[in-house]
Design goal:
The chain has 465 residues and is an alpha+beta fold. It has 12 helices and 11 strands. Among the domains are: 113 residues, Beta-Lactamase (2-Layer Sandwich); 160 residues, 2-Layer Sandwich (Heat Shock Protein 90), CATH 3.30.565. The strands form 3 sheets. The chain has a 5-stranded mixed β-sheet with strand order 6-8-9-11-10. A hairpin with a 2-residue loop joins strand 3 and strand 4. Helix 8 runs parallel beside helix 9 and helix 9 runs antiparallel to helix 11. The longest helix has 50 residues.
Length: 465
């Protein structure tokens, strides 16, 4: 697997560290010993003795003896020597470059040493009975490994090694989450909606960790949306199957039935058609609310009036099972909202409570304000629901008992409409079991929804449960 980003981070970091260490050392070393490099000092100390020896050799043995001496003193690729008479003429017969001659003049003014990047020249005078001579030497710097003291060279090597380790760890630390993110992206593209990239991030809290966690959040939301669409398709196909099957059966029977039976079959077809129409209408409401296509129309309204209208109709439905509805409010509650959506939300919750309270059930409805929030709670004395089912109650087509048909338990769309209707108002809905038994559903609505102009635009998007 290619790790291009890893090497792009590691190699420049490491090279920069190594160059920095080397340059820093050489600069410090040069600054400390610019005037008196340590590797020149042995020859520098010997120059007065060598100058006297060369002058005496020249006076005793002439040019051949001097040349032999200077050749023995010179080291290949290290040093060369010349001897000048009082008039400045070179006595060994060797060519003397002008730069060396200029360096010798400078060396005499600087305690016998001229040190530069161009030349390293030593000069020392010797006086005899015949006059004064000048011995000049050019020294070539030794290799870097010899010029740098051993302890400092090891410091440089160890520093380069440890900088490589540190750069390796940094590059790994920076690129590992990105590699996980790339692999997770590929898995997500292949349809694995459960993949997550941030499992092993620990307490990491930098920008890369934030990116990985945002990816996981996005993957989770994508999974929820796709699952919601699948559930919607599955629920629609399941719910439509029964009335369509009954209609087809009724049509088949009607073709061979007598007049009385045909009339009964047509009534059956009409009932199923009405039920099918109602079901499709609810499905469309849920789909439009969840997609944001249905734009709510906000206007000032009285929540008390909405509650009164809904409960007035609910009393007739409750009378069929002998159930009673007790209503209590805490004064006038006015807010900005969509009358139709709020009415539908409250109506679905109350009808749900009437159904599950059973014969002679008791339903308690309360409306009040808590700060800037209107709160509507509906409590029944039915059997309640399993705790693990509470978070799922407001999902489309969810029913606690999947075996319950639409004739007994509804389609599982009522509470989904409630959740979405409340969401477009910027509110929340929750459910909890109550003691000794029963279920309480609570709707919380802001008195003034977030910016009516924003709410009336298509920017409204519903949260996913």
């Amino acid at each position: 697997m290619s790790r291009r980003l890893f090497w792009k981070i590691f190699l420049p970091f490491w090279a920069a560290q190594a160059i920095l260490l080397g340059a820093l050392y050489l600069r410090v070393h040069y600054r400390i010993s610019a005037e008196h490099p340590w590797w020149i000092q042995p020859e520098r100390r010997e120059m007065p003795v060598l100058a006297d020896l060369a002058a005496r050799r020249y006076e005793g043995q002439g040019q051949p003896g001097l040349t032999q001496l200077l050749d023995s003193l010179s080291l290949a690729n290290r040093s060369r020597f010349w001897l000048l008479d009082p008039g400045g003429s070179e006595l060994s017969g060797r060519p003397l470059p002008d730069r060396i001659l200029r360096g010798a003049a400078s060396a005499e003014r600087k305690e016998g040493l001229y040190h530069s990047y161009e030349a390293n020249v030593l000069a020392a005078r010797a006086t005899t009975g015949r006059g004064q001579y000048l011995l000049v030497a050019e020294l070539t710097p030794p290799p870097l490994s010899e010029r740098i003291p051993g302890d400092l060279l090891w410091t440089l090597k160890l520093g380069t090694f440890f900088s490589a380790i540190i750069c390796l760890l940094i590059a790994h630390y920076l690129t590992k989450p990105i590699e996980r993110l790339r692999d997770a992206t590929h898995e997500l593209a292949r349809g694995n909606l459960d993949i997550r990239a941030g499992k092993n991030l620990g307490n990491r809290s930098d920008e890369i960790a934030d990116l990985v966690r945002d990816f996981d959040t996005m993957a989770g939301e994508l999974r929820n949306q796709i699952q919601s669409e699948r559930n919607l398709l599955s629920g629609v196909s399941h719910e439509l199957r029964s009335p369509i099957a009954r209609i087809r059966l009724a049509l088949t029977l009607a073709r061979t039935a007598d007049d009385d039976e045909r009339a009964e079959m047509l009534d059956r077809i009409e009932q199923d058609s009405i039920q099918l129409d109602s079901m499709l209408e609810r499905i469309l409401i849920v789909a439009r609310l969840e997609s944001g296509q249905q734009k709510p129309k906000f206007e000032p309204l009285s929540l008390n009036e909405v509650m009164d209208d809904v409960l007035h109709d609910a009393h007739f439905e409750a009378a069929a099972t002998g159930a009673t509805i007790a209503y209590q409010d805490s004064g006038d509650i006015r807010l900005n909202g969509d009358d139709g959506l709020l009415r539908s939300a409250v109506e679905n919750v109350v009808r749900n409570a009437i159904f599950y309270s059973g014969q002679e059930g008791k339903i308690e409805v309360r409306a009040g304000k808590v700060g800037d929030t209107a709160v509507v709670s509906v409590r029944d004395n039915g059997p309640g629901v399993p705790e693990n089912a509470l978070p799922l109650l407001f999902k489309p087509f969810y029913r606690v008992d999947d075996s319950r048909g639409t004739t007994t338990g509804g389609m599982g769309l009522g509470l989904a409409i409630v959740r979405n209707a409340v969401a477009v108002h910027g509110g929340t809905v929750s459910a909890k079991n109550v003691v000794p038994h029963g279920l309480e559903v609570e709707l919380r609505l802001p008195i003034t929804p977030i910016s009516l102009t924003k709410r009336n635009s298509s920017e409204v998007r519903l949260s996913q449960v």
